[in-house]
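Issue: ligand-bound run for adenosine-5'-triphosphate - logging full I/O for the record.

Environment: standard queue, default settings, no custom constraints.

Inputs:
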Amino acid sequence: MVVAKVETRDEVAKSVSTGRSERTVVKVGFDFGTNTSVICAAESGKDVELKQDMVLSVVGYPKPGLLPGILPRGKRVLFGEEAIQHRLHLNLKWPLIKGIVTDFEPAKDFMGHVRTVIDPDGAKEIWAVIGCPANSNSEKCHDLRTGCASAFSKVLIVPEPFLAAMGFRDESRLDDPTYVDPTRNSLFVDIGAGTTDFCMVQGFYPTSNEMASMNKAGNDIDTAITAAIRRKYPDWAVTAIRITRLKEQYSFVGEAPERIVVTELVGGKPRHLDITNEIKVGCDSLVDDVVKHIEEMASRCDTDAVETMLNNIILTGGGSLIRNLCEVIQAKLHGKGYTTARVRRVDDYKRLVAKGALKTAKAVRDDQWQIPV
Ligand SMILES: Nc1ncnc2c1ncn2[C@@H]1O[C@H](COP(=O)(O)OP(=O)(O)OP(=O)(O)O)[C@@H](O)[C@H]1O
Ligand SMILES: [Mg+2]
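Outputs:
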């Protein structure tokens, strides 16, 4: 059985007393994503449907000198999609870089917003299991806890790919002999915005040897696409947001499924631009590194378990949506002699980590929670 384990105790600022809270406790699974944050919540063991369960992880502060009344309802700080819509008048800040809290002010503001989404009246206590990139060190976990301290009374930090595996597990089918339990022996590859995380899930909470994190993911694809586009169309003043949207619409690896020709304004005039090769160059830039890390994980895996694990390589995260990615990674692994390797993607990656985090939150004992500082 998979057992949620508290991270190293000596890093924890304060151990939690087992005294009961007077206020209603909401248990939350929180996927604090570099790009998007996802929330799943439960009260008294029952799942709660939130009005909004996903927020783009971005905070917008008004640019200096902005006239009153330009921002909606005179707001001073905007969050998520609303901040993106008003980006012309805002300085945008992302609370996480590569899955790590680096700028505490926007992190604190963003978490204040998340708190309001979960508990608009501020009357409840929130205990959250929070995902972190695989193999985050104690300093990074501490920063994540500090970044979330304003919103959550108690927290537990757990590696994201492990939570993804928990989220993917279908407990109702565990007695079905045809069901392959993903937490039994598989390799999860979570391709996010900031990091790509690898985790062998073999029935236990993973050790650091069973995880790896690569500092290359969706944002780096955007950078590679931007560089290629700048070389081909130097006059096109394409924005970072537009690049991301184009990538998400057309991403592929390997053979191009079609020519990608977009109509864009260049110097104010519409032009038809072929960006097939630029999208390909960007997306392809991740593949060899992912394959290399899978090989590394295979070399660390027990000989008895490696075949089954390679047969259960599961891609998740936004990057898993890249067309042809499973097929290309699988073919490369076969080409390297891992002939039994099978790569597939999850159906609904978006809520997987938060779902797994909520399952974990429900299973955690009261004395295992930590008080964030
Ligand atoms: N169809 C798509 N094709 C390619 N990339 C995509 C697609 N859809 C989303 N992405 C990319 O996936 C990334 C976001 O994935 P995800 O939501 O898993 O990241 P995150 O959890 O916010 O980041 P991290 O896990 O690194 O903190 C972004 O770079 C986004 O542009
Ligand atoms: Mg993620």
